[in-house]
Amino acid sequence: MNYNTEKTNASNVIAQQGDAWKAINPEYVARLRSQNRFKTGIDIAKYTAKIMREDMDSYDIDSKNYTQSLGCWHGFVGQQKMISIKKHFTTTKGTYLYLSGWMVAAMRSEFGPLPDQSMHEKTSVPLLIEELYTFLKQADARELGHVFQELDAANDKGDQVAAQAALKKINEFETHVVPIIADIDAGFGNEEATYLLAKKMIEAGACCIQIENQVSDAKQCGHQDGKVTVPHEDFLAKINAVRYAFMELGVDDGVIVARTDSLGAGLTQKIPVSQEPGDLADQYNNYIDGEVINSLDQLKSGDLVLSRGGELIIPNRLANGLVRFKPDTGEDRVVLDCITSLQNGADLLWIETEQPNVGQIAGMVNRIREAVPNAKLVYNNSPSFNWTLSFRQQIFDTWNKDGIDVSAYNRADLMSPIYDETKLALEADQQIQNFQKDAAREAGIFHHLITLPTYHTAALSTDNLAKDYFGEMGMLAYVKNVQREEIRQGLACVKHQDMSGSNMGDDHKEYFSGEQALKASGENNTMSQFS
C-alpha cells in the first residue's frame, strides 16, 4: 500500500462530492487505510496462507528455515508477543501464533476452566481467532500512528529528508499480522459440524486448521490417557470438510494439519467395514487386539467376531464397548495414519508423542517419507513434558550405553538441583537448546510450537508478584520487578494508555472534530513521565 497513492485516490473521491465533503482530509483517509490494511478475516486468511505456503517451500529447500510459534490465550498476549518479535528481530518472518484448544478450554469457556475434552463452546475458537487479529491490527495502527507523528514533525520543520524517511517507513511497514495455526480439536461433531466450524474459523482469519483423529465426543488431551481414535475413512471425511470450507471461502491454499494421537491411543470406537482385502479398513482392523477362536461354540452372548487373514477373532472390548488395539502397534498406526492423511488432502502432519525425542520422531518420519518424500511436521514442544528430566535421562541412557561412567548420577532423581551444574545436566541443557534446530534437520519438523507457554508464564509472573507485593517488599515488588524492567527493556506496554489506544483516539478526534477536539494526551497526562 502506497501512502501518497492512497492520498491521491481519496482526494479524487472527495473532490467528486463538492463542498459536501470539504471537511474530509484525504491525508487522514490515507492514514486510516494504512492502519487498516485487512478489511475482513478472509483477507487475513488469504494473506497468511500465502506466507505459510512460501515458508513450507523454503523449508523443503533448507531445514534451517523452520518456523515457530507460541500459544496465546488472549489477543493482548498475542499482540505483545508480536510487538516483542518485531522489536528484537526487526521482522516477523518465520513466526506464527498458535491457538490451543487446551487453552481455549482452560481459559475462555463460559463454563469456567475445563479439561481439554472438547466440552467448551465451539464458538470460543473463532472468537479467539478474531480477537487475536483485532489486537494484531491494533498493533499495526499504533505503530503507524507514531510514524505519522514523525511525518508531521518533519513537515512542520520543513525537513524533507526526515519526511521521506517517514514515508519510507509507512510504505514498507511490516504488519504484525501473521499466520495462526488454529486447533479445531476432533471437529466438534460429525463432518458437517466440522465444516461449519471450519468456515467460522476461516472467516475469522485462520489460514491453517489442525484436526486430530480422535473420536469427537470422547476427545482427550493428547498427553492424557484414554484416547480413542477413529477409522481412517471417518478422519478423511473431516479433512475433506475442512478443504471444502477453505475452497468455498476462496482460500484455496489454506493449510490443513492432520494430527494423529495413535501413538498414545490404545482404543478405537468402532470396527470399520472392509470392502476388499488390504483396503484402509482392513489395514486398520489388522491392529485390533483379539482372541483367535476355532469354533463358534467358543462365543458368549454379545460377542463380536471379526474375520481377519483367514482367522476368526473375538475383538478385545472394554465394558463400555470400546475396542482395544494390539499392544506395541502405536508407531505402525502413526505411520499409516500420516501416509493416509497426506495422500488424501492434508498438507502437514502432527504426531503427538509422549516425550521430546529426536530419534523417536525421526524414526517415524523416515518411514512416512518412504511413501511421501516431502512429508513434514508441526510439532508440539509441550509443557506437558518434563523437559529437564527427559533430556537428562536421555543423556544418562546414552552414556550408559556407550560405557561412560554414570555412577555419580541417580537416574530416577536427575531432576534434583544437585545435578544442575554437572556435565550431564549441562549437556542435557545444550540438547534442549538445540532441540528445534536438530529436529528440523533430522526429523522433518517444519513448525515448532509450544501449546500453552503463556498460561504458565502468566501463572509464574503473577505468583512472583503476589509473593513479594503482599510480603515485605510491598510496592517495591511492582516497581523493581515490573515497571523498572519495562522502562529499561523498552517495553511499549509501559505506556499502557498509548497501548490501549488513547493516542489513536486523540488522532481520530482531531480528524473528526478539528481544533475543538478534546484530547486525553495533554500535559497533565501522567503517561508523559515515561517519555
TrEMBL record:
What does the record give as cofactor? Mg(2+)
Question: Among its keywords, does the record have Protein transport?
Answer: no
Cofactor binding notes: Can also use Mn(2+) ion.
Q: Which GO terms describe its molecular function?
A: isocitrate lyase activity; metal ion binding
Q: Where is the active site?
A: C221 (proton acceptor)
Q: Which UniProt keywords apply?
A: Lyase, Magnesium, Metal-binding
Can you state which reaction this protein catalyses? D-threo-isocitrate = glyoxylate + succinate
Q: Name any one Pfam family assigned in the record.
A: ICL
The biological process GO terms on file are:
carboxylic acid metabolic process
Residues where Mg(2+) binds: D183
Note the Gene3D superfamilies from the entry: Phosphoenolpyruvate-binding domains
Q: What is this protein's name?
A: Isocitrate lyase
